[in-house]
Amino acid sequence: MTSIWNPWHGCHKISDGCTNCYVYRGDARRGIDSSIVTQTKNFDLPIKRKRNGEYKIPPGSDVYTCFTSDFFNKDADDWRPEAWRMIRERNDLRFLMITKRIDRFHVGLPDDWNDGYDNVIICCTVENQDRADYRLPIYRKVPIKHKIIICEPLLERIDLKPYDIGSWVEHITAGGESGQETHPCNFDWIMEIRQLCIDNDISFWFKQTGAKFIKDGKLYNIPRRMQHAQARKSGLNL
């Protein structure tokens, strides 16, 4: 079973350089200002219980955390210790979070974190070579037990070879950029990352083609509803 837990909402698009942010597009349609970081009404969802005393999120569930913001957003620093407390209490769940703020990982970290909680997966996004060169050296050193690299939206060719990913990365996800004003994703970039995963015995997921996809020198405009399906159809997942 999977659940989505958004302890806070908002992502500060301008200040942190978010490109074609999914949150902004979705919130704009609902009249929500995503530049404002707010605590959600479901902040305490992991520890909420039913009338019979059972947790609302069943033991063994995967919890996708803060998918409408970033867990390490500076405007949520005051709330993060309590979020960590709930994650520690629910060590029967597996929490997955994706961040582009790995350089803020240590802010508000629990005293008992040590080399990481067994039930926490922290994924680091790298959308271009510049961000890979900045974030991955930090990501490699921080004490996290389960590490995944997310190359999405993949805005250009990224060379991950210098980072010896086979020694510390469990999985890599790659995919193009969706939306109307997007950068094209080249099939060759996807295949290069996939081959690196094969060479290092790492699992790989081609998540989506993106709206503009280049293969064999030809540009394809792919409707949003088909982007994930076309990626699955390629049979590239490892």
> How would the global form be characterised?
globular
Question: Structural class of the secondary structure composition?
Answer: alpha/beta
Sheet having the most strands: 7 strands, parallel
Q: Average pLDDT across residues?
A: 92
Oligomer: single chain
Helix content: 10-25%
The low-confidence parts are 13-20
Along the chain, the helix and strand elements come as EEHHEEHEEHEEEHEEEH
Main β-sheet, spatial strand arrangement = 1-4-5-6-7-8-10
Rounded to an integer in angstroms, the radius of gyration calculated over CA atoms is 18 Å
Say how many strands there are: 12
DSSP helical segment count: 6
Tally of separate domains: 1
Classify the beta-strand content into a percent band: 15-25%
Distance N to C terminus: 22 Å
